[in-house]
């Protein structure tokens, strides 16, 4: 009888140990997945922050490097594509930024105030985010910044050898229909 109880106790400890090992393994996998998820979210948020600083700091080249080589930029209004707003490729994005910084924005300080980043999709190599934006401009003669535009950015992300980069950026501009 004593031998039977001992075997049962040994089997119980074996299966209990096996269960605990499996539980710990699943928890560590889960924790690892959570850490990767958090790391990706932070990296994407950092690139999004750089978007504001590089554009508003008139760093055209640095701005263009936040995008993949074949990235697309578009602007939409009332749910419809704005004709002529599409840029394709990092080179086109760089030229647009440089022309904007040296042209229409040369005499003013722009600020992109981002808030409310939401991850619509996220996996190890791609993501889709949305965030609100309020864009202000201020010239030397302005006592305060003036609201220029507002809307929502929808960004599609790709993880590249350079890190997370924007592969598609759509600005959905706020405007009321008259």
Summarize this structure briefly.
It is built from three helices and seven strands. The chain is an alpha+beta fold and 178 residues long.
Description:
It is a single chain. This protein is α+β, with helices and mostly antiparallel strands and 178 residues long. The protein has one domain: Nuclear Transport Factor 2, Chain: A. 41% of the residues lie in helices and 39% in strands. The chain is built from three helices and seven strands; from the N terminus they run ααβββαββββ. Strands 1, 2, 3, 4, 5, 6 and 7 form a seven-stranded mixed β-sheet that branches. Strand 5 and strand 6 form a beta hairpin. The longest helix is centred in the first third of the chain and has 55 residues. The protein is elongated and about 90 Å long. The N and C termini lie far apart (90 Å). 16% of the residues are buried.
**Helix content range:** 40-55%
- What portion of residues belong to β-strands? 35-45%
Structural class: alpha+beta
Radius of gyration: 25 Å
CATH top level class name? Alpha Beta
Pattern of helices and strands? HHEEEHEEEE
Query: What is the domain tally?
Result: 1
From the spread of the alpha carbons, the general shape counts as elongated
The CATH topology name reads Nuclear Transport Factor 2, Chain: A
Number of helices: 3
For the termini, the CA-CA separation is 90 Å
| CATH architectural grouping | Roll
Number of strands: 7
Low-pLDDT runs of 5+ residues are none
Mean pLDDT: 88
Which sheet architecture does the biggest sheet show?
A: 7 strands, mixed
């Amino acid at each position: 009888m004593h031998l039977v109880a001992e075997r049962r106790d040994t089997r119980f400890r074996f299966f209990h140990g096996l269960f605990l090992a499996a539980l710990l393994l699943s928890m560590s996998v889960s924790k690892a997945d959570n850490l990767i998820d958090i790391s990706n979210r932070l990296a994407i948020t950092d690139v999004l922050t750089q978007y504001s600083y590089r554009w508003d700091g008139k760093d055209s080249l640095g701005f263009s490097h936040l995008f993949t080589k074949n990235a697309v930029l578009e602007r939409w209004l009332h749910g419809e594509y704005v004709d002529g707003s599409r840029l394709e490729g990092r080179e086109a994005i760089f030229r647009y930024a440089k022309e904007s910084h040296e042209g229409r924005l040369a005499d003013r300080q722009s600020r992109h105030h981002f808030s409310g980043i939401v991850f619509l999709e996220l996996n190890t190599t791609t993501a889709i985010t949305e965030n609100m934006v309020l864009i202000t401009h201020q010239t030397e003669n302005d006592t305060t910044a003036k609201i220029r535009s507002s809307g929502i950015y929808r960004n599609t992300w790709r993880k590249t050898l350079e890190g997370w980069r924007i592969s598609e950026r759509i600005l959905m501009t706020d405007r009321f229909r008259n």
